[in-house]
What we know:
Layout: E1 3-8, H1 16-29, E2 33-37, H2 41-46, E3 49-52, H3 54-57, H4 79-91, E4 96-101, H5 103-114, E5 119-123, H6 139-160, E6 163-168, H7 175-183, E7 188-190, H8 198-210, E8 216-221, H9 227-238, E9 243-246, H10 258-276, E10 282-287, E11 290-295, H11 296-301
Parallel strand pairs: 1-2, 1-4, 4-5, 5-10, 6-8, 6-9, 7-8
Antiparallel strand pairs: 2-3, 10-11
Helix pairs in contact: 1-10, 6-7, 8-9
6-O-phosphono-beta-D-fructofuranose binds at residues 11, 102, 125-127, 169-171, 222, 252.
Amino acid sequence: MKRIGILTSGGDAPGMNAAINGIVDEARKHNIEVRGYLEGYSGLIANDYIELTPENVKPHHGRGGTFIGTSRSEEFKKPQVQAKIAKRLLEEEVEGLIVIGGDGSYRGALSLSKLGIQTIGIPGTIDNDIPLTELTLGFKTAVRNVVDTVDVIMQSAASHKHLYAIEVMGRKAGDIAEWAGRALDADGIIANTNDFDVEKVRQTIEDSQAMGKRFQLFVIAEGVMTCEEFQEIVERETGYPIHPLMLGHIQRGGNPVAEDRILGLGFGEHAVKLILEGKSGRCTSVIDNKVTDLSLEETLAAVE
Ligand code: ADP
Ligand code: F6P
């Protein structure tokens, strides 16, 4: 095999650079050139790429974000655009393509695989919302970011006996809210739609205050409600003043925790091995704490 291409797509996730490093390391063992398409599928459309080598990849291994850029590209969803790309990849002897991203990016990868491009997905999203894999790249770092940031805010909250409603990312998934909320010993975690009950919130606030806790913390998954919605209902129904705070992109940046770096290397290495075995339409996954792979089609069929 002569050459493969890779790209990062959708929301960036800490650990994407480590996955790129894992791919380049494994490819180098087999003398395979690696093209890094810039800005996700947009770079694939424009044929905009750089050669990835240990020299330009290794400085980014432990850094958050993705140094080859990412984007959300509506243009790429057009079948005629995908067909043009597949034709060019074959002409330019790009014999495999690794797509690091979330389920939207996986749909793009599956389309290219159906057009005869040997395509492998790597789950890169802080949301941990890709079915069948136990973990996605960036999730553990996002939880770390939420916990560290909220710890800081709660020092101020405790000084004033404030009540906080903190909204965290995750799209439809409540994993970040659940993990970070638990780690923070939050008074309430609203990770799923049926977790919100204003009378329960009132009771929780009263219990927490009665035990002498100096702040109250509710962690809310963005997919359930916004922190302002929570504030509006709780203030109206209970009279307790709420500080709403949407944490935003501080959750997505930051240098990846050790686990995301190790996972990135493992996913990258495994993806190249799959390509060398002639596999296509697969995605790297974690099952029973081990890196393995599953069918892209089955994984996408399990998306809720
Ligand atoms: P994520 O990969 O994090 O879920 P998005 O849902 O925004 O992020 O998807 C990233 C990109 O993947 C989109 O901008 C688009 O280029 C591509 N994509 C998403 N859905 C499809 C689809 N159904 N078919 C082809 N490409 C898609
Ligand atoms: O998918 C990752 C994610 O960070 C979600 O948690 C969030 O809903 C979304 O991306 C935010 O997207 P953007 O950065 O485009 O606002």
